[in-house]
Amino acid sequence: MNEQVVVKLNHYWTDIYFYLHYPHEDKITHQAVRILQLIEKKQYVGVHEVASYLHISHNTASEHVKRLLEKKYIIKEKNPEDQRKVIICLSESGKNVLHRNTSLDENKLKTVLDQLSDQEKVIVEKALELLSQGAKKCMF
Length: 140
Known about the structure:
It contains seven helices and two strands, in the order ααααββααα. It is mainly alpha-helical.
């Protein structure tokens, strides 16, 4: 792919997020948000997966997880496939914090989409769907 197209797409993405994200109200680190995203996107996450994903030591990952547990953003549960293992899951509070820190403000997005024709909305939806599908193949 043409390097200029990649640069343009990245620029468009940062514009979209900058102008349409929710106001940041939560005191949460970037790494904590990334951990919450990992838990949301991948099934059966434990401390080992957090360490591997963030390229940090097991002890450091454990400390991050401990802080998220204290804030009640995550909960621990038994792995349904192996009761000896513990997995980390998002709490309702964690889901809300993650949404506010990674998603677009749905009211702002609706305002923008309402300015597009039906055909343009279909094009935008299809383009983002294709990018999402491609991204999922690269993630893990």
